[in-house]
Amino acid sequence: MRARRVGGRERSVVGLATDALNQWLVACTLDGTLNFYDFRTAVCEPTLVLPSTATGVVLQREGGLLAVVCDDLVVRVVDLETRKVVREMGVLTGFELLIDAFKTSSVATSLSFSPTNDFLATSHIDSLGVFPWANRAQYADIMFKGIQDDEIAEVSLPSVQGTSEEEEALAALKVNDSPTDAFSTPPQLDSELITLTLLPRSRWQTLLNLEVIQFSVVFSIVATKQTERGAAPEHAPFFLPTLPGVETRFAIDTEKKEKEAAAARASSRRLQKKGDVESVFYEKMAACCGAR
Q: Is the pLDDT reported for residue 128 higher than 80?
């Protein structure tokens, strides 16, 4: 940025930012002064002076928050609506929170995560390309534990040569090839506390839809059985009688058999009656013959 002389002294601009509606332009100078300008009239509003010199700014447009990086190793968050410092984040002292890190041969100038934290894009000094990094936690189980500074491994930048360098690129993504010691669960503070799982998010999120998964499995089994048995038969015409049951059976053959059985029973009754008549006649003839 070009230096500007104000009040007999020079001030270098280290950062510029505009709000989401382009109503205000914020200019941060090296001496830690935030200047607010009306975007339409270019009139400077009352300024905000920070207690330390500034080196850069980052604006969060949706929330209207401006993060100012200062030389005293403090990040100050300024609300553009009230123009006041709402948060101050000092030097990080909780080194036990460091769970993963890697170093590159070239210094990174900028980095950004994808919305789902699946990939990390970085840019480096003396390089015109953007280097994507994959988050291993999305593809494998990662053990979260604190690491020391001497455990940080140095990896090479992703290759841009093509498919011939695929194996080397995959090898560069492996930060630690040496096997890690088994992690032992520390003793619980209380027996009623619950230990959180270390599995990936894709594993335990399926429990939220367990009933849907069970229903899908049952439905697929039923559909497979129906497919194996064949398509369901078409409905019979309304004028054809059918028998009750799961399978479709016509009652035509049954009625025919019933008629034949009824005719056979009637014929047998006639024969039986005829036999009864002959037996009576035979008895009378026998009686007459015996009387003679």
A: yes
